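Field log, afternoon session.

UNIT: design team B
ACTIVITY: writing a sequence onto a fixed backbone
BACKBONE:
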């Protein structure tokens, strides 16, 4: 996302704003999609969901996560690796044993379960993985990842996120 804001002189209120929504393909190094949103356009999270591509892996940071986004990506035949905020609920069903490669890549835990929503914001009934990775920039606060890819090594999921 790239923002361009124009403030009215002497005011903290933006006069006009434009956002470039660029989907970048890590594999090719080229843009994979592009849209422009104006002052009354869609949110960052909604921009990702406008053109879901089957078999694509969508990678996003904490501010982009939504239950609707998870549901739409999976229903669109794509996959996701999202960094989660600590307040997003998760109910663990089972824990995967970490491999040596997982530990070498700073994986702390790898759990399978379901997102926990609320009456007002129900979570989609999709089986997901929560993977915690050691964060060298903030050792007391691990990186918390969520993915629908249940068959990939935890270290692979971590590398997908870290090399975004």
């Amino acid at each position: 996302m790239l923002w361009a804001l124009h403030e009215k002189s002497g005011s903290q209120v933006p006069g006009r704003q434009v956002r470039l929504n660029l989907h970048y393909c890590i594999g090719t190094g080229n843009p994979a999609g592009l849209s422009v949103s104006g002052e009354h356009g869609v949110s960052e999270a909604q921009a990702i969901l406008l053109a879901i591509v089957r078999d694509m892996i969508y990678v996003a940071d904490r501010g982009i996560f939504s239950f609707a986004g998870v549901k739409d990506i999976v229903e669109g035949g794509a996959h996701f690796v999202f960094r989660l905020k600590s307040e997003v609920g998760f109910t663990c069903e089972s824990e995967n044993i970490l491999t040596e490669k997982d530990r070498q890549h700073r994986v702390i835990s790898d759990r399978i379960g379901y997102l926990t929503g609320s009456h007002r914001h129900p979570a989609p009934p999709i089986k997901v993985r929560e993977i915690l990775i050691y964060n060298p920039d903030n050792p007391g606060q691990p990186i918390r990842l969520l993915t629908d890819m249940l068959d990939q090594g935890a270290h692979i999921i971590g590398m997908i996120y870290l090399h975004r």
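LOG NOTE: The chain has two domains: 1-41, 53-162.
NEXT ACTIVITY: expression trials, pending approval
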